[in-house]
Design a protein that fits this description.
single chain, 792 residues, alpha+beta, Transferase(Phosphotransferase), domain 1, 8-stranded mixed β-sheet, 22 helices
């Protein structure tokens, strides 16, 4: 059900936290360290990097899920039912309602019978599959939670970068019934469904288990009796119909899966799926393969694409479930920001869930899916998204036409949350605050990672915020930032407060104009009885524990909202000055410099560069000799320092890595844009957004060690940056060779270890060398914000 407050029963199957648990303090650090960072696989600026492409290929997009799929975990169906669905497997016995259970068994029998007809023609099994899934709706327990499974196959779900078409979609019944009525009058109405409405996705295949790598023979199969003519006629008779489930009426469907641009089919259906290490190597070796969607590997990526779009383009969710069925074989797959877990049976995962042998368990799992409320579906506690159950929300979906997508200006489904309300804790004594959500400004595009979403908000004026007169947020432009970071990571709020306090203590308030302004923050841990809690117990030390973390912040302008070339230069110089100060005094290393994290604050007609997003920042103390020691690569891949792309790099992170990232921000900005917000025709560094670590390391290393390097052609608007970029590349070139010689001397024992040499590429690439370059633009001095430096 929709929630006004973030509460849940401690015994809920997929609940987040119990009612009696404090929600504002970060839990103790766990032994499981962060395995990867958000955007190391899924760049936050990835969508904007590809915005010049009017249309994106599904296969091309799904390639970038390889690294996530390489980390997939496997459990048997019983464990999946217990750990993921919270189902008490020993009690998975038929329902006490005999008539109801007989109908459920009969629906399964009808489906299995349909799988023996017209092999290869998926439309044959759609009607009985929809009937089967909806037959378990009586288990929902309440009208509010009732769900409807319907055939979505003929039309793409709206609100994503690519056009994906799950065979069967699932929505709350109130929305589904309205859609069914409108579909009867206008078949195009099925196009009103957008990712924010989908609760689950189901993909059906009719290949006798081959697509799940569990082929079997059916003695009752009439494959030899089916002619190609009949198969063609079956496809021609398909209609994009969605109907209310009844005992007698069936739904026809289409097996069409591709987007408007189809990739070639190059592999046979017998191609086996690579194992996890192979998948990772493929990602690192930057091999963008043309793969056949009619293979097990293609199906796995296809399902992950559905999960990505539900997590990235829909309602704020911690996890989703996708069901894959190939005739009598079935696989449930769970996706969250830390792991992908699939149900398998038998040794080595070669035999999947056989519906003929585990009929009762399968039907009980369907009942459990019907019984889940919004929070158990992964929707974050406290979110009141009435659109999930409001038939009028379909109008919003209809407005998300492809021609109306404002590419490069936020995610495609940027209106999905508009009009929703979110209630969150603001104090440890239980005081709450509610905001009304507006446009989504940015959303992480991927599965694993922080999954950060930034949304415009305004106070809903509940919980007594006006008791003292005017609301303290009155007139402010605010955003809420919600993410799912590792529970042991220091919060952005702690980092920013540390910097703010030191700025005031040192009477250096100038730096406050270049830091984000946070008004409140909250942390909501996952309960041990939640699916995340159960996964921690199931995979001790291997499952990355996460939390829900949010903050209310001042809304800032994106870098591309500036209008003059010199404004860009000043903002970049501002961010450099802020970075040096927070590293020198509060001992904070940012570790995620990217275009999206360089923002602009406008005050009284003046612009100030803001170093934003300290989610990945590290606090350290040089006085005690303790330096950043995290060996985990952090940052946004296109902007990461070159050596952080190598497996051999074991840290520690250094401030020169962030300065190198700043160089890449400027390089990509001037080469990929002709002026603010206008993409160039040629994108020379596009591969940095799409390829793996080996490719990026080689490309960046070549750039940094090329003595005759010249910046690619750029527009007149950004012409002034040629001098900056050429001089910075020269400093890096000197540093690469000077540092290489120093390392050889260290190995030979002819030199002593010196941390400053490691930090600065032996003095060639440091704050001092960068300041000399950045304090002047087109032969005119820029503003030095620190009064102590500007007076010298």
């Amino acid at each position: 059900m929709d929630r006004d407050e973030p509460t849940a029963s401690a015994s809920s199957a997929l609940g987040h936290h119990s009612q009696n648990r404090k929600t504002t303090t970060t839990p103790p650090r766990r032994s499981t360290e962060p395995q990867s960072t958000p955007n190391s696989h899924h760049a936050g600026s990835y969508a904007s990097a590809l915005a010049a492409k009017e249309q994106r290929l599904v296969d091309e997009e799904n390639h970038y899920l390889l690294a996530d799929l390489g980390q997939m975990k496997t459990v048997d169906p019983e464990r999946f039912a217990s750990v993921i669905l919270g189902l008490s497997v020993p009690n998975a016995t038929p329902s006490d309602k005999k008539d109801y259970w007989n109908k459920l068994e009969s629906a399964l029998g009808d489906y299995l019978k349909a799988t023996t007809l017209n092999p290869g023609v998926e439309a044959t099994i759609y009607p009985s599959a929809v009937e089967l899934f909806n037959a378990a709706s009586a288990a929902s327990g309440s009208e509010e939670n009732k769900k409807l499974f319907f055939k979505q196959d003929t039309t793409p779900v709206r609100g994503a970068w690519v056009m994906e078409k799950p065979d069967i979609g699932v929505v709350f019944q109130r929305v589904g019934m309205k859609l069914a009525e409108r579909t009867k009058e206008n078949k195009d109405e099925i196009g009103s469904v957008f990712w924010g409405l989908l609760l689950y996705a189901v993909e059906l295949k009719h290949q006798k288990g081959k697509m799940l790598e569990a082929p079997y023979e059916d003695s009752t199969s009439s494959q030899s009796q089916q002619s190609k003519t009949n198969q063609k006629r079956a496809r021609e008779d398909e209609t994009p119909t969605m109907k209310q489930p009844t005992a007698s009426k069936k739904v026809a469907g289409s097996s069409s899966r591709a987007s408007k641009k189809k990739s070639p089919e190059t592999a046979s259906s017998s191609v086996s799926e690579p194992n996890s290490s192979t998948l990772y190597k493929m990602m690192q070796d930057r091999k963008l393969m043309e793969y056949d969607r009619k293979t097990p590997e293609g199906l796995k990526r296809q399902a992950a694409g559905y999960a990505r779009d539900m997590l990235s383009n829909g309602i704020l969710r911690s996890h989703v479930i996708v069901i894959l069925i190939d005739d009598a074989m079935c696989r449930f797959v769970y996706y969250d920001h830390s792991a992908i877990v699939q149900s398998e049976a038998g040794l080595f995962g070669l035999c999947v869930f056989d519906l003929r042998e585990k009929r009762t368990l399968f039907l009980k799992m369907l009942e459990q899916l019907h019984a889940f409320d919004a929070q158990q579906l992964g929707i974050i506690p406290g979110l009141d998204a009435k659109l999930l159950k409001d038939p009028n929300s379909l109008k919003k979906g209809a407005k998300m036409g492809w021609s109306q997508l404002d590419l490069g200006e936020g995610p495609p489904a940027k209106l999905a949350l508009k009009g929703s309300f979110y209630t969150f804790p603001v104090t440890s004594d239980g005081r709450k605050r509610t905001v009304e959500l507006g446009e989504i400004l940015s959303s992480a595009y991927g599965i694993r990672g922080r999954g950060t979403t930034v949304v415009r908000v305004k106070c809903a004026h509940k919980h007594g915020c006006r008791s003292g007169g005017q609301c303290d947020w009155e007139g402010l432009k605010l955003v809420i930032k919600i993410s799912f970071p590792s529970e042991g990571r220091t919060s952005e709020t702690e980092i920013v407060e540390r910097c703010t306090k030191m700025a005031r203590d040192r009477r250096e308030e100038w730096v406050l104009k270049h830091l984000p302004r946070l008004f409140c923050s909250f942390t909501i841990p996952f309960d041990r009885n939640s699916v995340q809690g159960r996964l921690m117990a199931e995979f001790p030390g291997a499952y990355e524990a996460r939390i829900i973390r949010g903050s209310i912040q001042e809304e800032l302008k994106p870098l591309m909202k500036l209008e003059a070339s010199r404004q860009f230069a000043q903002v970049i110089y501002d961010v450099f000055q802020c970075h040096e100060w927070v590293y020198t005094y509060p001992k904070v290393l940012h570790r995620d410099i990217s275009q999206l994290n360089i923002m602009v604050r406008e005050e009284n007609g003046k612009f100030y560069g803001v170093l934003n997003d300290f989610d990945l920042a590290t606090v350290f103390e040089t006085i005690s000799g303790h330096r950043p020691t995290s060996e985990h690569r952090t940052g946004t891949r296109p902007y990461m320092a070159h050596e952080q792309h190598t497996i051999s790099w074991q840290g520690p992170p250094r401030y020169r890595h962030d300065l190198e990232s700043l160089f890449y921000v400027m390089l990509i900005m001037v080469c990929h844009y002709t002026k603010p917000g206008v993409k160039a025709e040629e994108l020379p560094y596009l591969e940095w957004f799409t390829e793996g670590d080996n490719s990026l390391f080689n490309s960046k290393r070549t750039l940094l060690t090329e003595a005759t390097w010249e910046i690619p052609p750029i527009s007149d608007f950004f012409a002034g940056y040629k001098v900056w970029l050429s001089r910075i590349q020269g400093s890096l070139w000197d540093g690469m060779f000077g540092y290489g010689q120093y390392l050889r001397k260290l190995r030979a024992g002819t030199s002593i270890n010196n941390e400053q040499k490691h930090d600065t590429f032996c003095g060639h690439f440091s704050y001092d060398t960068m300041r000399v370059i950045l304090n002047t633009f087109e032969n005119e001095a820029l503003l030095t914000r620190d009064p102590k430096r500007s007076s010298n």
